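Sharing in case it's useful to others searching the archive later.

Someone asked me privately for the predicted structure of Homoserine O-acetyltransferase, so I'm posting the question and my answer publicly. Question first, with the sequence:
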Amino acid sequence: MENKTFHHDEPFKLESGAWLPEFDLAYTTYGTLNAEKDNVVWVCHAFTGNANPSDWWNGLIGEKRLYNPNEHFIVCANILGSHYGSTNALSKNPISGEPYFHDFPFLSIRDVVRAIDLLRIHLGIEKINTLLGGSLGGQQALEWAILQPDLIENLILFSTNAIHSPWGIAFNESQRMAIAADPTWTERHPKAGMNGMKVARSIALLSYRNYATYGRTQSRDEGQVDFFRANTYQNYQGEKLGKRFNAFSYWTLSKMFDSHDVGRGRGKVEEALKLIKAKTLVIGITSDVLFPPEEQEFISKHIPNAKYALIDSMYGHDGFLIEFEAMTETIKGWNV
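And my answer, the predicted structure tokens:
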């Protein structure tokens, strides 16, 4: 495994019309690009993920896994705006010499994809054998397959959508409201909004799991009146994220989520999906309340010759980070 940084030293125009004077993308590669350059597996990470998919998708990626670096050249980039080495709100603005903080520009999924495509060109990759991503990563993969239809041979999408729903936007707005309610949020400081972000994360967990998941994993004891497992769990998840993320990136990426619409500037969403040429597998989770299965069904219906698969899981949206055995078997069956 190699951790590297790609530096783009030219101004980068964003979809909003704003500019980044330059940017960095932290990225990880596993394995070796073969002589034919036809063994590339590119992974797009989700909301608070990083460029090391063996951290969060170790059931799919790694030695003795479906995507083995002994066979594949695996690439994953930390996206613009994120916390793990790529240019984000805590990065120094080369024009002012100070961190961007609240002045960091709005980023869309399309901006992110255009940036990682520059990394792809830098790496000399002319064809991606398999592109895969879930949730926010799936949104990136879908957008990339539309922008570059001849680049990708196989496309695998997990628990994602073609346009972010009002339901998803409402969850994200509630999380940003929690950050904005933190009195430190207005400060130009790396820790600004941190307590608000912890609350935001606890809100997010409600959408990542569901009623049945909490009933099974955070059950209450008979006769209990306070100090429930669910109380502890919500606080733990907030504290856990607070140790590895920042509120500025959380804000930036949640706004990016909301912007997702493959039909923007292309007519209808359905028409945009028809532009995809890759052999496509779309996987949904039965209990996902944030990206419900009908969103994946919609994608598969409008991508030419796409296949749809549904995995039965109690883990809700987080199922795409947990149900590795079922995901692996589904992909193997599709590849036959």
